[in-house]
UniProtKB/TrEMBL annotation:
The keyword Secreted is assigned to this record: no
Similarity annotation: Belongs to the peptidase S1C family.
Stated name of the protein: PDZ domain-containing protein
Signal peptide: none
Coiled-coil ranges (or none): none
GO molecular function: serine-type endopeptidase activity
Origin species: Paractinoplanes ferrugineus
Protein keywords: Hydrolase, Membrane, Protease, Transmembrane, Transmembrane helix
Chain ranges passing through the membrane: 74-98
Length: 419
């Protein structure tokens, strides 16, 4: 089949074949010009050749009468999206700017805004940092010839408590340094070697004094802080807990003074140079004087913290320091008996008893073995000495003792020695 435009003209009829009469029928009036009506025109099928693309595809024809969709919902969605994006961007920008982001007017500033208060100012008073900031200005570094120790201010006019072994061998004059780096001279007021407490006075007034707590109210597990200058590292603070109470310790160099402690044991890191510094509870109150460490080293110069440190209870230190300030020396609490030390027998065996002394007045005799003092179990005679010296003269304490096969009890009123 074809559309007629590319058909060839029909050949003339064969010779002798009559031509149809054009005048006999209207059908044949234009047959020679119309191949569809010429019965002699050959029929053939012509397939159109594939045409090459000469341009873009024609655009689809849109019916102009078709209904059109409204653009209002699309515009509303775009508007809401823009508002949300703008709000989120503004919020994030504000947060980064306030919290120390990188952008400022020049685009190069780092860190917090200059208008922000330092973080330390915002620490709660009962937080660790709050307690430290409260106590640290009252802690001093004590410097004597060839040695360094610690101490803490107990009065605004300059009295400082420290250890006796810190000032041992020092002259009448020494110096102290404060947490702000300032220094002042100090003089020795008095010392009590056996209790390991000494008092010095700083030549400066208007000083911040510490708050003293009650060491009798301590419990194992209470959090504590140790202040001082360990290994000459001034203004050092370490933290731990109360590990034990009334831990009896005997210390001293061979040929020197033997010191007895009924100590507060702590696992706060304490090293040489911490001696004399305060042990502080979570309320910022001093509850002990850091004095002794236990070490696996055989020499004092190589001793270091292994989590076993001991402090003189502040109730004892306060009483002794008060005696030194008021009377020039401390009163030593005694039970009126001599004990045997270094024995394998559990308890404190009495070598001799003063009949007019506290023990004798309570009925104790030489040979008796004291097994408990104020409910504390005694393992050796040194335990009795350390615990007795913890109490103030005039204190009445219950005592259990063994005489032969019998266990007895008594109440003993402790007194101060006559020296």
């Amino acid at each position: 089949m074809t559309d007629g435009w590319n058909a060839r003209s029909a050949p003339p009829p064969a010779t002798g074949q009559p031509m149809p009469s054009q005048g006999t029928s209207p059908w044949w009036s234009d047959a020679l010009a119309d191949p569809w009506r010429d019965p002699y025109t050959p029929a053939h099928v012509v397939l159109p050749a594939a045409r090459e693309s000469v341009g873009p595809a024609p655009e689809p024809v849109t019916d102009p009468d078709a209904p059109r969709r409204s653009l209002t919902p699309i515009l509303l969605i775009c508007l809401v999206t823009s508002l949300l994006a703008g709000g989120l961007g503004g919020t994030l920008g504000f947060v980064f700017a306030v919290k120390g982001g990188f952008a400022n007017s020049s685009g190069s500033s780092l860190g917090a805004s200059p208008t922000e208060a330092p973080a330390a100012v915002n620490r709660a008073p009962d937080s660790n940092a709050g307690v430290v900031s409260k106590v640290l200005p009252s802690v001093v570094t004590v410097r004597v010839t060839g040695a360094i120790g610690s101490g803490f201010i107990v009065s605004t006019d300059g009295y400082v408590i420290t250890n006796d072994h810190v000032v041992e061998g020092a002259g009448e004059t020494m110096s102290v340094s404060f947490s702000d780096g300032s220094t002042a001279s100090a003089k020795l007021v008095g010392r009590d070697p056996e209790s390991d407490i000494a008092v010095i006075k700083v030549a400066k007034s208007g000083l911040p004094a510490v708050s003293l707590g009650d060491s009798d109210q301590l419990a194992v597990g209470d959090p504590v802080f140790a202040f001082g200058s360990p290994l000459a590292l001034v203004n050092t603070v370490t933290a731990g807990i109360v590990s034990a109470l009334d831990r009896t310790i005997q210390a001293g160099e061979p040929g020197g003074t033997t010191r007895y402690y009924a100590a507060v044991q702590t696992d706060a890191a304490v090293n040489q140079g911490n001696s004399g510094g305060p042990l502080v509870n979570a309320a910022g109150q001093v509850v002990g004087v850091n004095s002794v460490i236990r070490s696996v080293s055989g020499t004092e110069t190589q001793a270091g913290n292994i989590g076993l440190a001991f402090a003189i209870p502040i109730n004892q230190a306060k009483r002794i320091a008060g005696d030194i300030i008021d009377h020039g020396k401390a009163r030593r609490t005694v039970i009126g008996a001599e004990v045997v030390t270094g024995t394998s027998t559990a308890g404190a065996r009495l070598r001799s008893v003063d009949p007019a002394g506290p023990a004798g007045s309570a009925g104790l005799k030489a040979g008796d073995v004291v097994t408990r003092l104020d409910h504390h179990i005694l393992e050796d005679g040194s335990d009795l000495i350390a615990l007795v010296r913890k109490y103030a003269p005039g204190t009445v304490i219950p005592v259990e003792y063994r005489r032969g096969t019998k266990t007895e009890s008594a109440s003993v009123t402790l007194v101060a020695d006559s020296n």
